[in-house]
Amino acid sequence: MKSPIPGAPSLARDLHPHVFSAVPTAVSLGNFDGVHRGHQAMLEVVCQAARQRKLKPTALTFAPAPGQFFARRAEKTPPARLQRLRDKLACIWAVGIEHVQLLRFNEALASMSPDAFCDQVLRHGLNAKWLIVGDDFRYGKDRSGDVKTLHAWCAAHGVECYVMPAVKAMDVRFSSSLVRTALRDGDCVTAAAILGRPYRISGRIAHGDKLGRTLGFPTINIPLWTPLPVQGIFAVRVYGVDVAGASAVLGAASVGVRPTVKENGKPLLEVFLLDFKGDLYGRRVVVEFVKRIRAEEKFDSIEVMTAQMHRDIAAVRDVFA
């Protein structure tokens, strides 16, 4: 399948037996939400192992993530997704992975036994000769498979298996849930430390209801998903505004559901660009979060909200000053 990102390595959705049987692979398995420093370390190891053994470095991941699938099946709120799929794939490929296998997580996959998963997906589907997983890896129906059952299956089928210890800093394990907690608390610095880069959201600029323009604060608008990984008012840098996309434009961003002007509003990222005017509709941009100014609030009136917007923008200018 052609990658959704021009110039990127290969991407395949779902998996059919023998589809890659002619290409032996080294495979890293995981959700990779956020592609944080722990994920990056694992992906670097699989690339190194693939080079040494002349295998194709491959990442196997899922859409939706198993946690999202099981939460929705139980009618519970799923964990907040940190990235769009496009951004996750770009981060995975940036490490050096040549092929991403995107496996649809559904009832059929959830009901597979651990051995059936290994046989159908890893052996027949990907022709895996070398595997790497994290030390907390679980798989198969009811999460009944773990690193011990995986080692046993690999030993029986001549596949090398490496269980990677957790990547930590100051005895704290890097994880996607830790990033979610930092973003929920508005701690962009900690989130960036775990990710190895500033937290970013990308998207295509869409038409809004033009309220910001009538208030003197025209914004670019990017629809988001739910539940939101981050909410509030932020100082941000925006890439993709210029033609080359390399220079950043500073902005004040609002992420949330706009409770003052909407009831049951849809999640939206709005950015007021501090020193830029122009038509950007349809352009894809990347918004980089620098510092949270405050949480999202519901104001008594548009006038009160507008006065606060002036203070927010002054605070954002202070951040970048």
Write a brief structural summary:
This protein has 321 residues and is α/β, with parallel strands linked by helices. 32% of the residues lie in helices and 26% in strands.
What does this 3D model show about the protein?
Helix content is 32%, strand content 26%. Helix 7 packs antiparallel against helix 8. The protein has helices at 37-53, 66-73, 85-95, 107-110, 114-125, 147-157, 176-184, 188-195, 211-214, 302-320, and strands at residues 10-13, 25-29, 56-63, 99-104, 128-134, 160-164, 168-169, 172-173, 200-204, 220-223, 232-239, 248-256, 268-273, 284-294. The protein folds into two domains: 10-173, Rossmann fold (3-Layer(aba) Sandwich), CATH 3.40.50; 198-320, Riboflavin kinase-like (Elongation Factor Tu (Ef-tu), domain 3, Beta Barrel), CATH 2.40.30.30. The chain has a six-stranded parallel beta sheet with strand order 1-4-3-2-5-6, with helices on both faces. The longest helix is centred in the last third of the chain and has 19 residues, at 302-320. By secondary structure, the protein is α/β, with parallel strands linked by helices.
According to CATH, what is the topology of the largest domain? Rossmann fold
CATH class of the largest domain: Alpha Beta
**Count of helical stretches:** 10
Q: What's the architecture of the largest domain, going by CATH? A: 3-Layer(aba) Sandwich
Overall pLDDT level:
91
Number of strands: 14
Distance between the termini: 46 Å
Largest sheet: 6 strands, parallel
Shape: elongated
Order of helices and strands: EEHEHHEHHEHEEEHHEHEEEEEH
Rounded radius of gyration (Å): 22 Å
Low-confidence spans: none
The neighbouring-strand order within the major sheet is 1-4-3-2-5-6
How much of the sequence lies in strands comes to 25-35%
As a percent range, the share of helical residues equals 25-40%
